[in-house]
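Please fill in the sequence for the structure shown.

STRUCTURE ENCODING:
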């Protein structure tokens, strides 16, 4: 049986041929190569971050060559390195929220999820008022800053003013702050509508189908044009709230907090549902029940569905 020392001696003898695979976050790679002329695969995974407070403080102190990529309201994002040499490429992507709120803390803490059904009545009587409060509290300042041209304008990669005579059809697209802007399998862009009367998919009606189709095509066309090697069937689009916007992500992107909290519905399925819906041009998504899942720490659960469950 091969002993530990013999096994350890194999790694230095590995001769790299090519990078075979890499996960979306760059945390795991698979290398193809040879050992003594025989083909070999070497899978490499970054070690987990420390959990001890003292070790985390030492880790934070080791951050170097911090480069700010952008800022918007309380959100800032960076590239940084833990390597001693400034010539080495950054090995960390940092997102900073400062000052953060109690809701931010809940959002990024571990939490169980619950399946809920949002009826038209629950939306009108409970969810819509919740959204109104969050808008009034400044939850959407980061969106208004982009639309009003105050921040991130250098990052805008598409601006469409809509068809002639339709001033309320404008939208723009820019990279999501969580994307490192280089790993294509984790590509994440945001398409933000300029009109402010559509808060979520609930405000969409049959009369909006043409606009939604146009927006979808423009977002896809701009993405594949800007990123060579990307094709339309490698992308998925889903809308979210509290101001209606569309996430454009690589089909291989693992579900993050936005996709996994029940706020994400496929854009194409939503368009099809509107097209086949009975009624006139004002019939829409406000008239249907939606089933999705939410985190137990989310406001939708604590302020809407949990109280309804216990009454």
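FILLED IN BY: designer on duty
SEQUENCE:
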């Amino acid at each position: 049986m091969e002993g530990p020392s013999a096994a350890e001696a194999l790694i230095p003898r590995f001769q790299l041929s090519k990078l075979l695979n890499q996960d979306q976050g760059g945390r795991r790679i698979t290398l193809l190569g040879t050992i003594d002329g025989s083909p070999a695969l070497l899978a490499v995974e970054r070690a987990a971050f420390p959990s001890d407070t003292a070790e985390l403080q030492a880790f934070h102190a080791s951050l170097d060559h911090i480069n700010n990529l952008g800022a918007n309201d309380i959100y800032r994002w960076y590239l940084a390195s833990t390597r001693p040499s400034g010539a080495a490429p950054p090995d960390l992507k940092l997102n900073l929220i400062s000052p953060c709120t109690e809701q931010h803390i809940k959002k990024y803490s571990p939490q169980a999820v619950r399946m809920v059904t949002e009826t038209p009545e629950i939306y009108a009587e409970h969810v819509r008022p919740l959204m109104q409060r969050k808008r009034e509290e400044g939850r959407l300042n980061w969106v208004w800053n982009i639309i009003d041209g105050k921040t991130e304008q250098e990052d805008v990669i598409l601006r469409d003013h809509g068809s002639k005579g339709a001033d309320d059809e404008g939208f723009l697209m820019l990279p999501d702050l969580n994307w490192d802007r280089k790993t294509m399998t984790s590509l994440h862009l945001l398409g933000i509508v300029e009109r402010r009367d559509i808060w979520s998919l609930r405000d969409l009606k049959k009369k909006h189908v043409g606009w939604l189709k146009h927006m979808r095509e423009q977002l896809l066309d701009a993405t594949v044009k800007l990123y060579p090697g990307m094709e339309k069937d490698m992308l998925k689009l889903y809308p979210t709230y509290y101001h209606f916007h569309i996430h454009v992500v690589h089909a291989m992107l693992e579900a993050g907090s936005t996709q996994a909290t029940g706020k994400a519905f496929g854009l194409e399925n939503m368009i099809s549902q509107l097209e086949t819906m009975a009624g006139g041009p004002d019939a829409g998504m406000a008239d249907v029940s939606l089933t999705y899942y939410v985190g137990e720490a989310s406001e939708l659960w604590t302020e809407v569905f949990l109280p309804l469950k216990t009454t």
